[in-house]
Specification:
Layout (H helix, E strand, L loop, with lengths): L1 E2 L9 E4 L1 E3 L17 E9 L2 E3 L2 E5 L3 E8 L4 E5 L4 E5 L4 E7 L4 E6 L12 E7 L9 E5 L19 E5 L8 E8 L4 E6 L15 E7 L8 E7 L10
Parallel strand pairs: 4-7, 6-12, 13-15
Antiparallel strand pairs: 1-16, 2-13, 3-17, 4-5, 7-10, 8-9, 11-12, 14-15, 15-16, 17-18
Length: 238
């Protein structure tokens, strides 16, 4: 999906505020320090991905990852937390850290494990429960050709990913969004969990709509697009 709004300057990035299914959710926490929790996750590495691919915690949480390999040796690295571990088949590697930085942090396989190695990554999203959930998305300018064909190719690998929360029919559905621009059009890659995916868009989880400010006043002018779900095993984009 491409927005046909021209970009008139030569800057490398365009900052967009995306409104998923109507509005960005604005959740304010009560005044005071939130309770720090122990968050534990079982992570499976395989050719070529991680399950779960997205992990969400709060700032200050003590995070434990128990990682196993489903096939061959893999690595798991999170640069911002100085983590880089090797996972051998039949073994469980335990990683612990304090989520003291907010943001979306990429974790990836740091051990070459086959032809799809570059696609093996996920994200740890660290939120500050005392901050309102206002999310910005950065559209990175690329010189590579961006093709909208249902395949997530390597041009998207280094694009920053942000997480948005829907409202209305599917409340609290988490949408993972990336954006790229070629200097003329703006492209969006949206991914979400869909337990009843089909090819004809007959269920509500097969459809999503986004809105974004196109005039400087989002109360007056909102651009919107309906996005059908296209079922392509392991390479699905909406």
């Amino acid at each position: 999906m491409a927005s046909k709004k021209a970009i008139n300057n030569g800057t490398l990035v365009v900052i967009l505020t995306i409104v998923i299914v109507g509005y960005v959710m604005m959740n304010y926490s009560p005044v005071g320090s939130p309770a720090v929790e122990d968050k534990e996750f079982d992570v499976v590495a395989f050719q070529w991905g991680f399950e779960p691919q997205f992990i969400e915690v709060n700032k200050g949480d003590h995070v434990t990852l128990r990682i196993t390999s489903d096939d061959v040796p893999h690595g798991l690295a999170i640069d911002e937390y100085q983590i880089n571990e090797t996972i051998m088949p039949g073994e469980t590697v335990k990683i612990e850290f304090i989520a003291d930085k907010t943001g979306s942090f990429k974790f990836y396989c740091s051990l070459v494990c086959g032809v799809g190695h570059d696609q093996q990554h996920g994200s740890i999203i660290v939120k500050d429960p005392l901050e309102p959930e206002v999310t910005t998305l950065t559209a990175i300018k690329t010189q590579e050709k961006i093709v909208v064909d249902g395949i997530i190719d390597k041009v998207w690998n280094d694009a920053t990913e942000s997480t948005f929360t829907t409202i209305f029919v599917e409340e609290s559905r988490q949408i993972k969004v990336k954006s790229l621009t070629d200097g003329s059009d703006i492209f969006f890659l949206l991914r979400w969990s869909d337990d009843d995916a089909n090819n004809d868009g007959t269920t509500e989880t097969d459809r999503i709509a986004i809105g974004f400010d196109i005039s400087g006043n989002s109360d007056i002018a909102m651009g919107a697009a309906g996005v059908p779900h296209v079922k392509v095993p392991q390479r699905t984009i909406g």
